[in-house]
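User: Predict dolichyl-phosphate-mannose--protein mannosyltransferase's structure from this.
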Amino acid sequence: MAVLDTDLDHIFPSSVLPPFWAKLVVGLVAIVCFARSYDGDFVFDDSEAIVNNKDLQAETPLGDLWHHDFWGSRLSSNTSHKSYRPLTVLTFRINYYLSGGFHPVGFHVVNILLHGGISVLMVDVFSVLFGGLQYTSKGRRLHLAPRASLLAALLFAVHPVHTECVAGVVGRADLLCALFFLLSFLGYCKAFRESNKEGTYSSTFWVLLSIFLGAVAMLCKEQGITVLGLNAVFDILVIGKFNVLEIVQKVLHKDKSLESLSMLRNGGLLFRMTLLTSGGAGMLYVRWRIMGTGPPAFTEVDNPASFADSMLVRAINYNYYYSLNAWLLLCPWWLCFDWSMGCIPLIKSVSDWRVIALAALWFCLIGLICQALCSEDGHKRRILTLGLGFLVIPFLPASNLFFRVGFVVAERVLYLPSVGYCVLLTFGFGALSKHTKKKKLIAAVVLGILLINMLRCVVRSGQWRSEEQLFRSALSVCPLNAKVHYNIGKNLADKGNQTAAIRYYREAVRLNPKYVHAMNNLGNILKERNELQEAEELLSLAVRIQPDFAAAWMNLGIVQNSLKRFEAAEQSYRMAIKHRRKYPDCYYNLGRLYADLNRHVDALNAWRNATVLKPEHSLAWNNMIILLDNTGNLAQAEAVGREALELIPNDHSLMFSLANVLGKSQKYKESEALFLKAIKANPNAASYHGNLDV
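Assistant:
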């Protein structure tokens, strides 16, 4: 049994649970922590990635998933987010098919079960990290650290920072990535199950399978490729027993035995490193080719530090972000769905007191690294090395070191790094227990952490059940975040509370004077309240700040049309279409403008464009029928009406308009049948009954 396990004897008695029951307990605890989110709504990013993503629907060919990003846009598009996760989207599509539509319960249940399964798998992973790799004569791995692996798995299962991944449906990308990441790591461990005649370990099949599982993890989320780096570290430092302290000493003393290091002559190790390097390079090459037009374009509000002119300012802020991520792992009490837009003000000089945080982070990290690489205790080296490996390596894609990322802090990216945190925390408890007599106090602290984290998971899962609760929970954490105020305002506007929505939109614009989406939404509400002058000012400012903001151009055109400034309105509509060529709603509004100006042919052409781009655009079809009816083109109106009803057979407004045309054409029986059908679909429409009587 591992030394660490003996140190934890006071927390878990000697009659510790066997592996099966330990896994069952961990799985149940993991599910209970987040079960409250099972009947939650689609919230925040779920709307774009799921509800508005056509890749989930049967009409979209399955092959398109391999050419689209996570949000359903073509990867070749300049506006694509470049997040390539086709396997995650495929699971969403299966969920949609099995649920019979966008019913969130099925989506949430899958996420909760995935977290439970990953937590169960963590028992085996932690068993390797703490107990090492030892096998029976039959090839079964021995569980040499049952207490340590159970404690670490429980700490992982109940960590509140996982709430975003589990309770938010889009977090499935992180869950699936973690699942295949861990399977890849465990598969790589199996490569050392048997020894060959030379005493070295090698199994090409398991190494190749591990690389394949790493590729699968990357197709769930880009972070998955980092498992290859972790496997390499595991192989060199743990399997190869590469001792940095010993090497340094030999270099300093010019020891000739350095040339005959067994690791350098280990053909099996070099072969495995070649396979891992080739696999990683191949995956990166394919990923880059698929990306198409290069990396995504992010804005300053997404990641302000990356746009700082000074390299020193960028470095300080990046390190401060790392310290915040570490704090979220240590004390996951202040959690927020979004940390951008002023939530974390930039550090602009070394005199800022927050520099202390990054100094503390590096003090701890350097101390741990020195112990991990230079300790004479091989058991301690292995645990600290793998703990730091799991903590740092999966976090690298989010670190801004290799490329700019589109966020400041994101709780979801800590799902895998939290494995390393749980290793280090468990090791710390073991070390404390070994050097203190107050073992019951340590046991109470461990139990307290588990219970508090479970309670926090339950509370946080409840906040993720609806957008209103989620957005309002962020106010106390990030009151300076303009996006928080924007989202609360949007949620209130959707519920019809325009007065309150205006207040939050104004605060969002105050906090971020360049927040064009807040200006656009605020301008829309003011337009509906007939406060047209201020609406025009806001929308004009939005398009000056972001000239390619098509929606703001269209809304500006609607306001200018209401102000009878027809030429300006037409120009605004044209600008919107210039920046978004496939914009059916804008063509519809342009058609209304032409109709007001009695430019009937232009109006019909605009509405026809709208229906070509969006065949189910009921308003455009209806306006075409009515305009043709009013201008006496009954035959053409009838033809358009029949065409529209073939595409949208259950639209009662189209039935009503076509019934009117048929009545004027003296086709009374058919007209009466359509009126009755429209009334059946919408019995409270007085005009339907009145026209039927006529």
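Residues 141 and 625 are 74 Å apart (CA to CA).
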